[in-house]
Amino acid sequence: MTVLRIVACCLSAVAAASAGVVQGVVLEQASGRPMSRTAVNLTPVPKSGGMPFSTRTGLQGEYTFLSVPEGLYILTASRRHYFPASYGQRLPQGRGTPLEVKEDGKVYVELHMRRMGAISGHILDENGIGLSDIPVIAYRAKLPLRIAATATSDDRGIYRMHGMLPGKYWIRTGAHTLEDGTTMLPTFSPEAREAHESRAYVVAVDSETTDADIRPMPGALFHLGGTVQCEPMGASVIVRLSSETGTRTATTVCGQTYQFVGLAPGGYEVLAEVQGGRIPMAGFVELFLDRDSETGTIRAGEAPLVQILDERTHGLNNLTLTGQRQDLAGPGTEIEIHSNQRVVPGNWEVSTKTGPNDYTDSITSYGGGARHQWRPERSTDAFEVFIGGAVETIRVVLVNTAGHLTGTVQADSKPVAGIPVFLWPVAESARRSLRGFVQKQSDVNGQFQFDGLPPGDYRIVASYDLTEVDEESIELARAVAVHVEKSQTATADLAPWLAPY
Known about the structure:
The protein is mostly beta strands. Helices cover 3% and strands 47% of the residues. It folds into 5 domains: 9-113, Carboxypeptidase-like, regulatory domain (Immunoglobulin-like); 117-218, Immunoglobulins (Immunoglobulin-like); 222-298, Immunoglobulins (Immunoglobulin-like), CATH 2.60.40.10; 305-399, no CATH class; 403-491, Sandwich (Immunoglobulin-like), CATH 2.60.40.1120. The chain is globular and about 75 Å long.
């Protein structure tokens, strides 16, 4: 993992006679210029007795919080296209350290903001001449592919994507037809069809990676069409086509056809939604396209009615799921799903909120798991279900023997307040149950607690220098290993981990 040095903020604390005042200025790290109209938040550490405050900087980047109750706070400035900057922050993706506010004190803090990364390059023909109007997609360099940013090449064949997190990316063009009718296939940089053959580009803070050039490969593109069968005849329908390179939409009416042209070979999902009805009407198909096809006919009926079967009671109850519909272009908006609710058909990633003594062992639908037969990679951060039947029963198996984990974060034998504590489940099944890693914040006494844990092995680390964890960062941070037993409470006392500059 590439670790970048950043000094996010500098502190000059001056005691004053006024009570509970926090003020300062927000500056751009690279230029030193003040940043006006920037959001600044003062958030209390748990159990510190404070209250949250928020404001925006003035024209010279200045901010002031008056009448701040005594306590420990996290002070953070945020602005679009910049990394949040916090008091005590060491890395651009790290967190701040607590700022102590005394009842009779005045604190002055400068916050220095750093711009997010960017990546740019040229889209070139066989002679090295720039190609205009070519769609470009960036993915984080891991599977399954998830779109991170998009752009379009300009008249010189140059594209630029900004607001990107540090890390490694694969860059790819989308399918395109040139002015002379030549058709270009989606191509990974510099000239590859598959992600594993692509070059990975590193994006860094306050900088732009400028050499992500691509030479799109020529090849046959196809069309896909079909009829939308629905009622009432003539009702307006929106048809959404998704693939790993993005989404496209078309409009038609019930009983009529739709068509998409210029499609590369590959997997596609098609969702048709009837507009304006009292009851949601939708239809969904998945297919693999390798030739011109009119096989995309969709039957759009009443959207699936979800029934949730809670295996604790062997009957229907009011258990609530949270879920995101996952089409090939990426996740949709997360929603709550209740029994007897109609939802749009398709592949979903779902989880459930449980009590402190429960954990989710499995979530399945009678329609089967997620399909995507041409894309074998599966999420390890949620349970996947396919919702497609007229009535879709989702079976949730909850177990009431969850474990717990408590501990204290200390440095030099003193509690560390307000530090993020990250818990990484080693087993994929536990990660699905918990929706990935779990994060808490230590309270004013440095204490933390995790509840609702599936039994098994975990890695745990406390650090101001992380905002999320994965297998790579867990190893880098030398996270402590801990085992959680059924219905038992494990303990893990931690020292803060400091990332190397």
